[in-house]
Amino acid sequence: MQRLNELIADNAGSLEQVQELLRDELRGQAIQRLSSASKSGSLVRFRGMVQDNGFSPQIYMTELNLIHSETGEKKSVSCHYSDKVALLNEPNSKWTVDEAANDFMFGKYGQKTPFCCVSVPGETSWAITAQSQGEDALIERFAAMHVQGSNAKDIHIQRKTVRPEETLVIIKVYGSEPRDLQLCSINDFVGILELPETSEEDAIEDSEIDPMSTAHMIQDEMEPFNSLPILHVVYYDSVSPLLHPLQHLEVDAKLVRGITIDYLFPFVMGDVLAAEYLLVHMVSKIRSRHDVVHTGNVPLNLHNIPTSVVSKAIINAIESLLPRVRSIPMTIEYLNKKRIAPGVFVSREAWKEIHTPPASVGGGPANSATERELAVHGLLSGELQVPDRTYVVIDEVGMDSGILKEQGVMNVRHLNDVITFAELPFAVGSGCDSPDHSSGKLVVDLSVLVLSQAKCMFDIQCVVPVQQAADYVVASVEESPHNTTVDNLNAMRAYLGAISRNEDYNISEEMNEALTSFFLTERKKTSQNGQPLYTQEAFMLRMEIARAWTLLSGEKTLSMEAWNKSGEMEAERLRRRESITAAKQSADGVVGR
Question: How many Cα atoms are found within 13 Å in the side-chain-facing hemisphere of 50?
């Protein structure tokens, strides 16, 4: 902090210059990660996702003149990179604000913009460990320290996260309001840590609150988050969602492709075709958008999954290979209680109820303070408010019977929007329950896998019926007989990350002519045979499979071998689907007779 103040003084208070100078000084140095051992005033690093960027900028005095009440000594202190003045917060401090020496009307003021950030959602355990590079400095979960308790204001914090393992941190960026801290973006923040001060006075139970008093009401939009750590950002760097913790490893693509298929094989019930489709899907990504067409968006449905034990084993296998995975269990309880899409949770009606004496609200019984504090400032988090390139697994296998309420219906619709349009809705305005709110769309790039017993409830083109091997036994990551050494696991992880990042792919002119000829021939053949016309969607799906297989083989140019492989995979997939359809029609005919 002392070095920071020196740089500010040397650069006439220009924070932009200070930030660049400090960035250069610290480049290449190891900066302590935020952890439970971090102390207030220390320089720390925090990698997080922007959960809410809708808070208003804060204005503060850049310098404050103090006077010692006993000695009369005067000091001018910097107010940058802190919400508190250290001298004023010392125990039994004799320092006070020198009212006469401060020009509160025309003095020097600065601006800082708060953001609510969360430790990157969906990060798998191996990715967190790899990212820490062996340091025992993984982010400790401040949520466990600050969100357990019955204080009504804790609800605000709880509703900013969706999983208990996620850590909330308030980020404050100094200077002009940043435009690049977009929702769901990942950033590396370096700054001065300010930990909350807790006291017994803060822990007020609902039973101790006078329902007629307004003392417990929220007076400022940041007040509900006073129990969270604050990071006063000196500088930050945006992090690509394609950044991989093991991208420094080099692997032999063809060799590791075989190892990866062998690894996935036992988890998908001993079905090679399902393992190949899963591998192709794990490296797919959206590469371009044109209106409603999203090139590379290939949702996958693996069905014939018999039990939740098998679906959980598949999810565990995926989590052991990919850095970010979010699983969505399609149970009635989950759908009715959770929120898939994020939304603003402050409505005029809710605030009107808060500020009305409880006994007079509708003539009903008094509400508790907790009930009246349910209106939450800012953006309410959603299960799929995750960074791009997060792998999403929707598990329909555990679906149970029951009544799907309004929230559940909305959640299913939002999942369908992500699958079909690669968009995640969110509410903006006065609140999702307010007539003034409007709905926006977050453009997302999420790979979606649906596991189901029968064909899933969503309209997915690439549906693979999984065929169980005769000797199949439910696999586990810990007991898998195939290539589970740490070196092999890391090779597979690095391999999948490298393929996902690879943009170096092309199609030769000769191959392009062959593809055009194939498409026209298939259209003509199906037309002559009285079959449904071979569609552009079917052709594009095969093109995506061929592209992925080319890259998975360590090649850059589409070959006839990769194109033929995609044809074999699609032919077998369609044969299985036709077989299931024929068997169902036969069974329906028997029942009809």
Answer: 27
Give the separation between CA 144 and CA 357, rounded to whole angstroms. 33
Instruction: Assign 67 to helix, strand or coil.
Output: strand
Buried b (16+ CB within 10 A) or exposed e, 154-169: bbbbebbbbeeebbbb
Taking the CA atoms of residue 238, residue 244, residue 247 and residue 249 in that order, the dihedral angle to the nearest 10 degrees is: 150
What Cα–Cα distance (Å) separates residue 352 from each residue in 355, 381, 501?
Answer: 5, 23, 50
Which residue carries 């300010």 as its tokens? 194
- Residue 71, both tokens: 């000695």
Residues 6+ away with beta carbon under 8 Å from 539: 519, 522
How far apart (Å, rounded) are the C-alpha atoms in residues 443 and 440?
10
Which residues make Cβ contacts (< 8 Å) with residue 360, sequence separation at least 6? none
- How would you classify residue 139: left for phi > 0, otherwise alpha for psi between -120 and 50, otherwise beta? beta
The 8-class DSSP code of residue 123 comes to B
Cα–Cα distance list, 482 to 258, 325, 363, 553, 581 (Å): 11, 22, 67, 20, 34
Count CB neighbours of 305 within 10 A: 24
Average confidence score pLDDT of the chain: 82
Give the number of other CB atoms < 10 A from CB of residue 4. Answer: 19
DSSP 393-457: EEE-TT---S---HHHHHHHHHHHHHHHHSEEEEEESS-TTSTT-EEEEEE---EEEEEESSS-S
Predicted model pTM: 0.85
Non-local (6+) Cβ contacts of 341 within 8 A are 382, 384, 385, 410, 411, 414, 424, 425, 426, 427
What does the pLDDT look like over 239-267, one tens digit per residue?
A: 999 999 998 899 999 999 999 999 999 99
pLDDT of residue 363: 46
- Closest by alpha carbon to 446, among 297, 244, 317, 279? 297
Q: How far is the C-alpha of 410 from the C-alpha of 383, rounded, in Å?
A: 13
Cα distance between residue 235 and residue 100, in whole Å: 35
**Which residue is listed with tokens 């996620």?**
166
79-to-136, 191, 443, 459, 554 alpha-carbon distances in Å: 33, 15, 38, 56, 55
Nearest to 444 by CA among 285, 302, 291, 301: 285
Nearest residue to 427 (alpha-carbon basis) of 339, 307, 522, 344 = 344
Question: Considering only CA atoms, which of 289, 290, 271, 287 is closest in space to residue 279?
Answer: 271
Q: Between β-strands 300-303 and 462-465, what pairing exists: parallel, antiparallel or unpaired?
A: parallel
Assess contact for 235 and 46: CB atoms under 8 A.
Answer: no
pLDDT tens-digit readout, 504-550:
999 999 999 999 999 999 999 999 999 889 999 999 999 999 999 99
Amino acid found at 237: D
Give residue 434's identity as a one-letter amino acid code.
Answer: S
Q: Collect all residues with Cβ–Cβ distance below 8 Å to 81 and sequence separation of at least 6.
A: 1, 4, 174, 191, 192, 232, 234
- Reported as a single tens digit per residue, the pLDDT across 272-307 is 999 999 999 999 999 988 877 788 889 999 999 999
Amino acid at 456: C
Residue 10 in this model has a pLDDT that exceeds 70: no
Any idea which residue has 């999954």 for tokens?
305
Q: Degrees (nearest 5) of the Cα angle 148, 338, 416?
A: 150
Residue 43 and residue 232 in contact, taking contact as beta carbons nearer than 8 Å? no
